[in-house]
Amino acid sequence: MAAKIFIDGEHGTTGLQIVTRLSARDDIELMSIAHEDRRDPEVRKAMLRDADIAILCLPDAAAREAVALAADAGTRFIDASTAHRTHPDWVFGYGELNKDQKDKIANAQFVSNPGCYSTGAIALIAPLVQAGMLPEDYPITINAVSGYTGGGKQMIAQMEDPDLDDAILSNHFAYALTLAHKHVPEIITRSGLTREPIFTPNVGRFAQGMLVHVPLHLDLLNDAPDLVDVYRVLREHYEGQDIVQLVPLIESQEISRLDPEQLAGHDTMRLYVFGTEGDGRVNLTAQLDNLGKGASGAAVQNLDLMLTTV
User: Fold this and answer.
1) Catalytic residue ranges
2) How far is residue 147 CA from its own chain's centroid?
3) Angle of CA points 230, 233, 234, to nearest 5°
4) CATH 3.30.360.10 applies to domain 116-293
5) Are 76 and 306 in contact (CB under 8 A)?
6) What gap in Å lies between CA 211 and CA 147, rounded to an integer?
7) pLDDT at residue 48 above 90?
8) What residues contact residue 156 under an 8 Å CB cut-off, 6+ apart?
9) What is the model's pLDDT at position 35?
């Protein structure tokens, strides 16, 4: 019997992308609320309780409400909101976090989908912390740029319709200038850091894509590794899987420009170790689609792991 999957919030940016990925599959039954019942809370509750797995594409408060409505019915959840990303009872939905993470996701009732910036940052930082190379209290700086779809329907409209009263006309802008951003807590918690990083997110005038940079001074790392040592730790962490791809050093050294849109439409992620051997510095970079591995693609990857235990 096909597993029943309900996307709560299917008409939002992330939900629509998940529906696109799942609509042609015959191994699941994709549940949907009829248009005339979309505002009926009892219909929504029934859908949540009847589903084998519910994917929540909702604001934080609504996501918490959805869990409260159906957790006791045995419904399993993938939450794409920020609500549960640091909750100790929720498994973090980055399957490449460590060797046991995919099994934890497969067997979990509650899975929190990572944020887009967080996915890139954690992918670069966590393996180095786990290996004992990067001190937990290292003063991390994260610089990133994302496509504007990461801001949801409101920002998409602001970027695409210049006639709006609140239209955004700039081609590139930085935000979260108070250094407060909703992804920072999960970056700290899931990377194993004890010092809060300085995170500067940016948005560019392109729809999908992302670059996340983590620059490091190697003399401040444990045992003062060189560029090759850093690359080796990442290679050992990610070998044996094909979702997160570590670009060979020789290829990284030949790159003169890196396009944040290069992986738009893909659910994989590429990691780079940039720098000059002997210079004492590296710039670690993650390249991904903010709506792919950074959101909807990751949700489907987590769903596929959970389906193995339905």
Assistant:
1) 116
2) 14
3) 90
4) yes
5) yes
6) 9
7) yes
8) 13, 148, 149, 207
9) 81
Q: Are 203 and 131 in contact (CB under 8 A)?
A: no
> Residue 203's Cα: distance from chain center in Å?
16
pLDDT of residue 1: 81
- Residue 222: closest CA among 300, 100, 131: 131
Burial of 257 per CB tally in 10 Å (0-12, 13-18, 19+): exposed
39 pLDDT tier (thresholds 50, 70, 90): confident
Distance CA 131, CA 237 (A): 9
In the chain, what are the domain boundaries?
A: 3-114+295-307, 116-293
Tokens linked to 43 = 């219909």
105/191 Cα distance (integer angstroms): 17
The three-class DSSP label of residue 47 is helix
231: left (phi over 0), alpha (psi -120 to 50) or beta: alpha
pLDDT value at position 209? 98
Type of residue found at 30: L
Spatial contact of 144 and 213, defined as CB atoms under 8 Å apart: yes
- What count of residues does the chain have? 310
**93-125 confidence digits (pLDDT tens):** 999 999 999 999 999 999 999 999 999 999 999
Tokens of 146: 């994302």
Distance linking the first and last C-alpha atoms of the chain? 10
- Cβ distance 79 to 59 under 8 Å? no
The architecture in CATH of the region 3-114+295-307 reads 3-Layer(aba) Sandwich (3.40)
| 243's tokens | 């979702």
pLDDT category at 38 given cuts 50, 70, 90 is confident
Q: How far apart are CA 41 and CA 101, in angstroms?
A: 34
Ramachandran class of 221: left when φ > 0, alpha when ψ lies in -120 to 50, beta otherwise: beta
Write the pLDDT tens digit of every residue in 149-170.
Answer: 999 999 999 999 999 999 999 9
Structure tokens at 175: 């935000």
Which residue from 185, 166, 177, 180 is spatially nearest to 203, judged by alpha carbons? 177
